[in-house]
Amino acid sequence: MRSKTSSFNKEIIKQDFRNVGWISIGYFLGLFFIVPMQLFMEFGRDEPRITDDRGLFGGIFAYELQSLFLIVMPVLMAVFLFRYLHVKGASDFAHSFPMKRGKLFHHHILSGMILLILPILLNYLVLVITAGVTDVTEYYTLANASYWLWLFTTMTLLIFVAGVFVGTLTGLSAVQGILTYILLVLPVGLYGLVAFHLSTYIKGYSGDMVLDRSLQYFSPLVDLLEYRSYGPEEVSVPVEVLSLFIYGGIAILFYVASVWLYKKRPLEAAGRALAVSALNPVFKLGVTFCFALFGGMYFSVAQNTYSWMITGYFIGGTFGFAAASMLLEKTWRVFNLKNLKGWLGYGVAAGVIIAAIPLLWQSYESYVPEKDEVEKVYISSGYWNYQELIDHERDVPYITTDEGVQSALNLHNQLIEVSDPLKDGEDSFFFVYELKDGSKVYRQYQISEERVREEKKAVYETEEYKSIEYPVLSLDSSEIDQLLIHPNAGPGGEELYDPEKISAFMEALKRDINDLSYDQMVAPRGLSSGVSFTVDGQRDNPYHAQLFPSYENTIEWMKQEGVYEQMMIQSEDIHRVEVYEWPENRDYDHDYVHYVFDRLKESGVEPLEVTNKDQVEALLQGRENQEDGKYIVAFYFDERNTNHYDLLSFDEGDAPNFIKEHFE
C-alpha cells in the first residue's frame, strides 16, 4: 500500500512558534495596552477627554505609538524568522530536510503571517465585543474599527513580506533590517532629492507643490503617518482605500519575488552583504547616486552656488561608491584600478545627466501662456498660501480682468529673464494659470524685489490682487460676531461686539486697503495693530488685518469713537528707543531688518538712545519690513523686558535730521 505524506508540516510551524512567538506576544500586548486598555481607562475617567473624528487613529489611542509597533514588529518577524538563511550552519541544516526549498519557504511565511495577524485580530475582537456591550460611539464605530483591522493587517503583511524579500537578497541579518527600511523609504527619499535638485536647475519648478501633493504615495511608511479624509464615513484616516488595495498588490509581488529568489539563492551566500552577485553593480550605483544627490543638496543649501553643488556631487558620490564597495567586498582596501574605472564611469554618466537637465527643460522654463489662452490667474507669495485655500475648501481669489492678467504675464516674463533657481531671493512668487481649455499651469520663483519692482508694482496695485493679499476684503461685516484690535507690540486693545460699529469699522478698513499704493503695501509706515475676527462663532479663520497710521479712514473712525489711544501705539507707550546705523559693508546671510539688528546687538555696536517724546513721535514714521535702509530703530515698551521690542527703519532721505547729525 502506497504511503501518503502531507504537504503541510506542522512541526516546522510549531518550531517557528517557539522561536518567534515572543514577537507575536509583544505585538499583541503593545496594541492591547495602546487601544483596548486605553478605552477601558477612558471609561473610568470622571471627565472623559474630548475625542476627534479619527476614532482609533486619533490622539486618545496614540496612533503614532500604534504605528511604531506596526513598523517595527513585522521587520523583527522577518529578521528572526529567516535568520537561518544568514548563518552558514543553520542554513545547511534547514535545507538538509527532505523537503523542497519552496515548500520550506511557504511554511515559514505562513508562520509569520499567522503570528502577525493574530494579535491584530484578537484586539479587534476585544473592540467589537466592547462595542456590543456598551456605548463606544464617542470613541469609535464598528466601521472605524473594521477599517483599523484592514489597515493594520494589510500594512503589517506588506512590511513583513518586504522584510522577507530583502532577507532573500542579503546574507546578513543586520543588513536585512536596515535595507528593509531603506527599501520602504527609498522611493520617497529619491523623489524628494530629485525634486529638490530639479527646483535648483529649472526656473519655475515648484518643489514644494510636487512634494506636498504626491510625497506620501512613494512610501507606505510616510503614508501611514499622514491623515486625510478617506474611508468609511469620510473620517480622517491615515491611508485611503485605493492605496490599501495597491499595497496589498505590492505585498503579493514581494511574495512572488521572494519565492523566486529563495529558490535561486545559493546556500553559500550566508554572511555576504548581497546574496545575488548580479545585483552588486545595481547596489553600488544606487548607493553612489543617493549619496551624490545628498552631497549636492547639502552644499547647495549651505553655499547657493552651482560650483559647490557639483563639489557636493563629487564628495557625496565618492563617499557612497567607496562605502558600497567596502560593504560588498568586506574590506577597506577598495582603492584599486578596477574600482577607479567604475567610479570614473559613474562620474561621466552623472556629468552627462547634469548637463542635459537644463537642456531638456528649456521649453518648460520659457513657457508663458498667451493672454487669449488664460481664463484667470492666481498669484501669491508661495504654494502653501494657495494650498491652504484648497484644503479649507475656500474660493480661490483669481485675477480675471484683462489688465490684471496682462500685468501677471508681464511679471512672469520678467521673472523668467532675471531669476536664478539656486538663489534664495527675498520675494517669492507662485502662479496658477487656469486656461480656457480647463488645464492649469503652475510656476514658482524666488528673487530680490528690486529686479522686478515695476512689474510687481503693476500687479500689486490691481484691485483683484488686493483681494488675494488681504482676505479681509471678502469678509462681510454681517458674518463677524466679534473683532479684537490690539497693538502688536505695545499695551492696550479693544473688542467690538456692536454690529453697527463693526460695520462702520469694516467699511473704513476696506476703503483704506483699496486705496493702498504699492509702497504702502510692501513697506508701510509706523507700528501696526492687529485685527483678529470671530466669524460665525469660529476664531480659527483666514481673516486678519494689520492697521497702520496711514489708514486715514480707519484712524478717523477710531478717533470719533474715542478708542484711538487704546487701539494704536502712542509715543507715551514707548519707554525708550535705540537707533542703529545700517552697516554698509557687511557680510550677512540675510538683509532682513530683524536679522541685521540681531547681528548689530551681538557685535556690541553702541546705538543712539532716544527718550524725548517729540523725537520718539518722529521715529514712529519709520517703515516696516524693509530689507535695506540707512537706520534701524528699535522701540522698547518695558524697561524690565529687553526682549519686548519692535523695529522700524529709515532710508537716508526720509530720516529725521537729529539721526543724521548724530551719525555724521
Can you describe this structure?
Residues 433-521 form the DUF6449 domain. The chain crosses the membrane at residues 20-40, 60-85, 105-127, 147-166, 178-202, 241-262, 282-300, 306-328, 340-361. Keywords: Membrane, Transmembrane, Transmembrane helix. This is DUF6449 domain-containing protein. Pfam families: DUF6449 (PF20047). This protein has 664 residues and is an alpha+beta fold. It has five domains: 10-276, no CATH class; 300-366, no CATH class; 371-469, no CATH class; 476-566, no CATH class; 571-663, no CATH class. The protein has 25 helices and 13 strands. The chain has helices at residues 10-34, 36-43, 63-81, 88-94, 101-133, 142-169, 173-201, 207-214, 220-224, 241-264, 280-303, 306-329, 337-360, 362-366, 383-391, 402-418, 453-460, 463-469, 499-514, 518-522, 552-561, 564-567, 593-602, 613-619, 657-663, and strands spanning 228-230, 235-237, 374-380, 427-435, 440-447, 480-487, 494-496, 529-535, 544-547, 576-581, 608-610, 631-636, 645-650. The strands form four sheets. A four-stranded antiparallel sheet has the order 7-6-8-9, covered by helices on one side. The chain has a four-stranded antiparallel sheet with strand order 11-10-12-13, sandwiched between helices. It has a three-stranded antiparallel sheet with strand order 3-4-5, with helices on both faces. β8 and β9 (544-547) form a beta hairpin. The protein is globular, with a radius of gyration of 32 Å. It starts with 9 loop residues before the first helix and ends with a helix. Residues 1-5 have low confidence and may be disordered.
